[in-house]
Amino acid sequence: MRIAVVENEEQERKHYLELLDEYEKETNVKNEVFMFSNGFDFIEKYPTDLDCVFMDIDMPQINGLEASKKVRDFDPEVMIIFVTNLPQFAIDGYKVQALDFLLKPFKYIDLKVELEKVNRYRETKVKTRSLWVTQKGSSKRIQLDKIVYIEVIHHDVIIHTLNDEIKFRGSLTAIEEKMDKSSFVRIGSSFIVNLMYVEGVVKGQCKLQGDIYLPISRSNKSEFMDKLNSYLNYDLEL
After folding, report:
1. I want to staple 195 with a disulfide (CB 3.0 to 4.6 A). Which of 24, 65, 231, 236 is the partner?
2. Model confidence at 90, in pLDDT bands (50, 70, 90)?
3. Phi and psi for 24 in degrees, rounded to 5?
4. What's residue 235's pLDDT?
5. Residues 109 and 145 in one domain
């Protein structure tokens, strides 16, 4: 899991690391932990693809509730667990769809319960963020986050994943209707790309991970750039 901890007290940050290390040893779940001592640094250096955030509420300059509201502007899905010794803040936490609250001082079992909730949510999310296709009479499930791009050649749809190509009869329009519109964008009559793997735009072409270049049509350019800018949260020029 990719976990962020936003906590201004150094001793508390060490406490997290000790408990997370214990959790890894007990469960064999590997974690990548990002530590932040204040909300401003967390927002400015926000790690991509976070699974959860343990957010201290009572911090100077910008408190955990304010920082979380800003996070929700660009990441509506990350799970936020507020950590506080002030339980009266619980109601405010629901305004930013907090997963739960952890009261200080907390022990290993308290942290473990929260991480198990995150794991269950992640498993459910993986199941729902999939595409089912029929290939040679059998159905196959493809995780959306493993799809780099999709193309159509004549009446064949080819899904290019990180490690494979899946080919079947169909139409790009039918596939497009099943995709997550915030992540997958049509760039022409023959291609849909996953914004997660876009590395840039070069001379009217979309550059994807793996040094792949695909043409962007004039009719799709504006929508593609708008969605790419929104996804990356900054401006590009074509």
Report:
1. 231
2. low
3. -60, -45
4. 38
5. no
- Which residues in 42-59 are b (16+ Cβ under 10 Å) and which e? bbeebeeebbbbbbbbeb
61 found inside a domain: yes
Does residue 137 carry a pLDDT above 80? no
Q: What is the largest CA-CA distance in the chain?
A: 63
Q: How many domains does the chain have?
A: 2
pTM beyond 0.85: no
Task: Indicate the residue among 82, 97, 127 that finishes a domain.
Answer: 127
How many other CB atoms sit within 10 Å of the CB of residue 174?
9
Q: Which of 8-22, 38-52, 157-171, 178-192 has the highest average model confidence (pLDDT)?
A: 8-22
Domain that holds residue 138: 134-232
Instruction: Please name which of 191, 187, 194 lies closest in space to residue 218, comparing C-alpha atoms.
Output: 187
Of 127, 154, 178, the one marking the end of a domain is: 127
Q: Are residues 148 and 212 in the same domain?
A: yes
